[in-house]
Design goal:
The structure holds three protein chains of three kinds. Chain A is α/β, with parallel strands linked by helices. In chain A, about 40% of the residues lie in helices and about 15% in strands. In chain A, strands 1, 2, 3, 6, 7, 8, 9, 10 and 11 form a nine-stranded mixed β-sheet that branches. A two-stranded antiparallel ribbon of chain A has the order 4-5. In chain A, helix 2 crosses helix 14 and helix 9 crosses helix 10. The termini of chain A are far apart. By secondary structure, chain B is mainly α. Chain B has one domain: MetI-like (MetI-like fold). Chain B has 13 helices and two strands. In chain B, helix 2 packs across helix 13, helix 3 runs antiparallel to helix 10 and helix 8 packs antiparallel against helix 9. Chain B is globular. Chain C contains twelve helices and no strands. Chain C has a single domain, classed as MetI-like (MetI-like fold), CATH 1.10.3720. The relative contact order of chain C is 0.14. Chain C is mainly α. The chains are: A alpha/beta, B mainly alpha, C mainly alpha. Chains in contact: A-B, A-C, B-C. At the B-C interface, helix 1, helix 3, helix 4, helix 5 and helix 7 of B face helix 1, helix 3, helix 4, helix 5 and helix 6 of C.
Chain lengths: ~425, ~290, ~280
């Protein structure tokens, strides 16, 4: 093959010309721009439950445009856009974990909008969820989607090890985890338990199951107390005995999902919404056999068989401070936050923030776990309360937890070190 | 026509304008940011050298410096050795030469994300095919997820895999231009193959070697995707490198001041590494200018 | 060239096969995985015999319809960046090859030293600037940025290449009354076609795969394929690995074909520049 220089030159210069004029999209008729993750677009506009924005679009006389990004990328973009003098985003979906009081000035206070033109029965949305996006008195976001952890187990593997019912207490979970760490007949090594280790959301459930916590609601570091240290010691022992996979340190949600789908792990704590992935016959080797329930706590704390205040995280809708027409933005938020829209979104696969959505028969049918999820929702807690240096605190905490797990420090020592490094980052008072 | 006229300055202007507009000026601004505390929503607050003090007091930063140093040197010299070996191999007798070269440079075209995902799968403990093979031949597995040394080794290996084609291409081009007469003359004079290699071949490709070395040093300093996608700097942030440290400051904590300070620290370190090469280049160019 | 002995031949061949295997294995696995049913991709032991399926490609088409539009953006931006880089580098390379002065030396140094700044850091100050210029989410901004980061290397290659052209050719054209522009286009460029390919290949591959700048400076109209791949990887509902590998394969195929097709010219071009340094 020989490229003649003439073709090459002609080709490259033509391409250069094509690249020069700016795309005309900016000049097109004004659209209502929503920046989000792809799941929000599916929840709002999905076909199974119906498009909650269709009627609104007609009434408002605008077209919507969804700009979707990956989880971390969407926040990066939203914050950058909101920092500009003139904004191009009308509504943004943000996760509390990426927020904090230092981000709050970038967004409109939604309190006055709610006073002026209220969303129906807003208080039905749990106070904890609303608080996740409220800083001081400023309401930055209206909750739209939650991801709350449940306890998943592979029933087929339980049966294989002679276990006839799911574990009811954390003690039983520990017993089961040992029994479920084995090599199957076909040579597959199964790990009894698996969780994500890239941030504290996986292990915080276990710490709470032992009666401890990471950072309390009044901003005290409490993971150096006895229950949390016991939990971390347990994790270290699990890691040493290979109840946890050898490469669990690099497990993110994706690896947890793959391990569960492939039957290489028997139990995990993950958002209830994962139920569909685990049981999807396209991807899973155990479709229909991966079940979910609430996360059991130690029998010695609270009532016997009590449940862990599971980790939750909350996506909310916010209006960037530089949005062009804030009333219009608010009317969109109001529309998709209504009771009817919440049900439609739940049918489209969304984790509904209104408890009443769980009473809808279609939701119950599509999400067999809804009874469990509804039960845990009132007590569910964020990984940590929001503050400016939350991201940094989570990184330090995971660093110390991993240090303890790989044996570079004793759990108590690692938590003391975490305390001394995290305390200066916490808000005072 | 050998007089330098303003039209000639105009001819280098477009390239220079790009560099000034998109790197130099932003860099000056980055220097200014590095003296301030600044995030998305706040106005910048002047903190003097506070950001530098903050990163220099952070043990993770120094760990990142050390890891970067280890990885960069392993990668650059590993690549050089591999690239050089392959270049000499391919320059000699070889059937289906084009096909083999095509296969050798294929990793250059792949996007990092796909490369890392596949490497992870291959090195999964117990079940990844490489770790499985290591076990079969009686060796220990690579515990890259829990052992920082193993993890850095894997990062280096992956990085070498991705970038060897670049080094190989540069060196292969140089090796294939070594005039046959020189080698034959040495052969006739009774030089051993090793002497021929050391005194003739290597010397002739030295300029290319230096270019490859310098460009790879500069780019290897920024090693990011290999670490971020493989371990995110874990376990316990023991495998963090400078670019990952910077990424956390800028994209996770949104602290642009410390991120900028880290960026400038990286620039200084790159300059220090490149200094010997720059010096050599300077000598050559002034000789050139004098001629 | 001396014909080596059979043992040496066998050893050389074995080494070459080993090296090719090391290069190609991970890529082959990605491509292979894209044709597997999703639940078999991570199956242990690996399923080697399977019925290839296009399911992943169909689902990529259905669930990520934007992917193919974004490929067009990638194509435009890559072509644009390559053209700009090569044009700027040829004209600068010519001057550096033919003339010398203190100012030129300084500017040549500047080209190398300025490249040592980590690219990620310039995104901070550039973002507001680019928005102010209304260049956000346009092809131009990425074309210019990618060119910036490769114009140094390309200039270096072009300079070395042009140095090899005898000056007499230009002088003859000059005597015939050609001006500088005509000399460049009619005399120099035709003789450095290989150099152009060599200088373009690096920016081309970079522009096709680049992620951070594309993430920061594009939203929709100029969005490139690496962004979609990373979005497929960053879902909140679990990664569909089949789709991911299908996308990776689609994204890889054209650039790989191109790199392989032009390798001869790249090597020829580099041969000219490498020796001279």
């Amino acid at each position: 093959m020989r490229i003649s220089r003439r073709t090459l030159l002609a080709g490259t210069s033509a391409a250069a010309l094509a690249a020069l004029p700016a795309p005309a999209v900016r000049a097109q008729a004004r659209k209502f721009v929503i920046m989000s993750h792809a799941v929000h677009q599916r929840a709002v506009t999905g076909t199974r439950g119906g498009d909650s924005s269709a009627e609104w679009k007609q009434r408002a006389g605008v077209e919507t445009e969804w700009l979707t990004f990956g989880v971390e990328a969407v926040h990066e973009r939203v914050y950058r856009e909101a920092g500009l003098a003139e904004g191009g985003v009308d509504v943004a979906f943000v996760l509390e974990r990426y927020g904090g009081p230092h981000i709050a000035p970038l967004f409109e206070d939604l309190g006055p909008h709610q006073q002026r033109d209220p969303i129906e029965d807003l208080t039905e949305i749990g106070a904890g969820m609303r608080a996740a996006h409220t800083y001081g008195t400023k309401v930055v976001g209206i909750p739209y989607r939650h991801a709350t952890h449940g306890f998943f187990y592979n029933e087929a593997l339980l049966t294989e090890r002679g276990l006839t019912r799911p574990p009811q207490t954390l003690e039983e979970v520990m017993e089961y985890a040992d029994r479920l760490s084995f090599v199957r007949g076909d040579g597959t090594r199964v790990n009894g338990f698996v969780t994500s280790m890239d941030d504290p959301s996986g292990i915080v459930d276990i710490i709470r199951g032992f009666g401890g916590d990471f950072i309390s609601r009044d901003y005290r570091f409490v993971a150096d107390a006895e229950p949390a240290v016991r939990a971390i010691t347990q994790l270290r022992d699990w890691f040493r005995r290979q109840v946890l996979p050898r490469n669990v340190m690099t497990f993110k949600t994706e690896e947890v999902i793959t391990a569960m789908q492939q039957g290489r792990a028997a139990m995990t704590n993950q958002p209830y919404g994962r139920f569909d992935n685990y049981n999807d016959p396209r991807q899973s080797r155990f479709p229909g056999q991966i079940k979910v329930q609430t996360i059991p706590a130690l029998s010695t704390i609270g009532a016997a068989g009590g449940i862990v205040p599971a980790k939750t995280s909350v996506w909310a809708m916010a209006i960037p401070r530089n949005a062009r027409n804030k009333e219009l933005s608010w009317s969109f938020i109001k529309e998709v936050s209504s009771k009817a829209s919440t049900i439609r979104a739940a049918i489209n696969g969304n984790g509904p923030v209104r408890l009443s959505a769980y009473d809808d028969p279609r939701v119950q049918e599509l999400a067999p776990y809804s009874a469990f999820e509804r039960r845990v929702l009132p007590t569910a807690m964020l990984v940590l309360p929001g503050f400016e240096h939350a991201a940094r605190a989570m990184d330090i905490f995971m660093e110390e937890v991993q240090r303890a797990m790989i044996g570079q420090a004793e759990p108590a020592e690692a938590m003391r070190s975490a305390k001394s490094r995290i305390e200066p980052l916490l808000p005072r008072g | 026509m050998n007089r330098l006229r303003s039209v000639h300055y105009a001819m280098i202007a477009p390239a220079q304008v790009l560099l000034v507009a998109f790197i130099l000026l932003p860099a000056v601004y980055v220097g200014w940011i590095s003296l301030h505390r600044w995030s998305f929503a706040d106005d910048p607050v002047f903190v003097g050298l506070g950001n530098y003090a903050a990163i220099f007091a952070d043990r993770v930063f120094w760990r990142a410096v050390w890891n970067t140093f280890l990885v960069v040197n392993t990668v650059v010299y590993g690549e050089l050795a591999l690239g050089l070996g392959l270049a000499f191999l391919m320059a000699g007798w070889m059937p289906c030469k084009k096909l083999i070269i095509a296969l050798l440079i294929a990793p250059y075209a792949i996007t990092e994300v796909s490369a890392v995902v596949m490497w992870r799968t291959m090195f999964e403990p117990d079940i990844g095919m490489i770790n499985w093979a290591l076990m079969q031949i009686g060796l220990d597995q690579l515990e890259w997820s829990s052992d920082p040394n193993h993890a850095l080794f894997l990062v280096a290996l992956l990085s070498i895999w991705i970038h060897t084609p670049f080094t190989f291409l540069l060196l292969y081009a140089a090796v294939s231009t070594i005039p046959g007469e020189y080698v034959e003359a040495a052969h006739i004079d009774g030089a051993t193959p090793w002497q021929t290699f050391w005194h003739i071949k290597l010397r002739m490709i030295m300029p290319a070697l230096l270019i490859a070395l310098m460009f790879r040093y500069i780019t290897a300093m920024r090693v990011f995707g290999e670490v971020w996608l493989l371990t995110e700097g874990g376990p316990a942030r023991l495998t963090e490198v400078l670019a990952v440290y910077l990424y956390r400051q800028a994209f996770r904590y949104h602290e642009f001041g410390t991120a900028s300070a880290t960026g400038l620290a990286m620039l200084v370190i790159s300059l220090l590494i490149a200094l010997p090469y720059l010096h050599q280049m300077h000598r050559r160019m002034f000789r050139h200018a004098g001629a | 060239m001396l014909e080596p002995r059979p043992v040496a031949k066998a050893a050389r061949l074995a080494l070459a096969v080993l090296a090719s295997g090391w290069s190609v294995l991970p890529i082959a696995l990605v491509v292979l995985a894209s044709f597997k049913p999703p639940r078999d991709i991570f199956a242990i032991p690996p399923t080697l015999i399977f019925t290839p399926t296009l399911e992943n490609y169909v689902r990529l088409w259905e669930l990520w319809p934007g992917f193919f539009d974004n490929m067009r953006n990638s194509l435009i931006i890559t072509a644009g960046a390559t053209a700009v880089t090569v044009a700027f580098a040829s004209s600068a390379g010519y001057v550096y090859a033919r003339y010398a002065s203190r100012l030129l030396t300084i500017s040549a140094f500047f080209m190398i030293v300025v490249r040592m700044l980590p690219p990620i850091i310039v995104t901070l100050p550039l973002f507001p600037l680019i928005n102010w210029l209304r260049l956000n989410d346009t092809h131009i901004v990425l074309v210019l940025l990618y060119s910036t980061f490769f114009v140094s290397l390309a200039t270096w290659i072009m300079r070395a290449f042009i140095e090899q052209i005898p000056r007499e050719l230009e002088e003859a054209a000059f005597v015939d009354g050609a001006n500088l522009g005509q000399i460049l286009v009619r005399v120099i460029l035709p003789l450095v076609a290989n150099g152009l390919v060599a200088a373009s290949i690096f920016v081309l591959v970079f522009a096709w795969n680049e992620y951070i700048f594309a993430l920061v400076f594009t939203t929709r109209s100029a969005r490139t394929t690496p962004l979609v791949i990373s979005e497929i990887l960053s879902t909140v509902e679990g990664v569909d690995w089949g789709i991911l590998f299908a996308a990776a394969t689609v994204q890889l195929a054209p650039i790989l074909a191109f790199v392989i097709a032009v390798q001869r010219y790249v090597i020829a071009g580099l041969t000219a520049s490498a020796v001279k340094g």
